[in-house]
Write a structure and sequence with these properties.
The chain is of the alpha/beta class. It contains four helices and five strands, in the order E-H-E-H-E-H-E-E-H. The chain has a five-stranded parallel β-sheet with strand order 2-1-3-4-5, with helices on both faces. Strand 3, helix 3 and strand 4 form a beta-alpha-beta unit.
């Protein structure tokens, strides 16, 4: 009698210093069936990561306190292999594609539908992800 197991929802850590960007991104991701946790800078993201272990990180680069570049260095030192999608207006963001677990780069403002597709792709096992060229910033 209806004793099936429910699939676990993927958890996404959204790291951005702008409240509005975090709220909007959370709303869109939750509408598409994802659980969302937030951090307002890279230091908070590392702390949240340690107790939550998200399936994916959406990361801004330009933030006060601890920026996204530093988060990526800290993640690399900690051998974190969680995929990261960089969402940033930084002109240097595209240089990160394919490095330090970065599986995609999106300029701000981003296209919501493209972001959702990239999130779904990033959550696939690594051997199933299609290689993608980042969009120019």
């Amino acid at each position: 009698m209806g004793g099936g197991t429910e699939a676990r929802r993927a958890t996404i850590l959204v790291v951005d210093d702008h409240d509005g960007v975090r709220r909007t991104t959370r709303a869109v991701l939750e509408q598409h069936g994802f659980d969302v946790i937030e951090a307002c800078h890279g230091g908070e993201a590392m702390a949240v990561y340690r107790w939550q272990e998200p399936d994916l990180v959406l990361l801004d680069l330009e933030m006060p306190v601890v920026d996204g570049w530093t988060f990526l260095r800290l993640a690399q030192r900690a051998s974190i292999e969680t995929p990261v999608l960089v969402v940033s207006s930084s002109p240097d963001a595209a240089s990160l594609f394919g490095t330090r677990c970065v599986v995609g780069v999106f300029p701000k403002p981003f296209n919501v539908l493209e972001l959702i597709e990239a999130v779904k792709r990033a959550l696939l096992p690594p051997h199933e992800r299609l290689p993608r060229t980042p969009r120019p910033c």
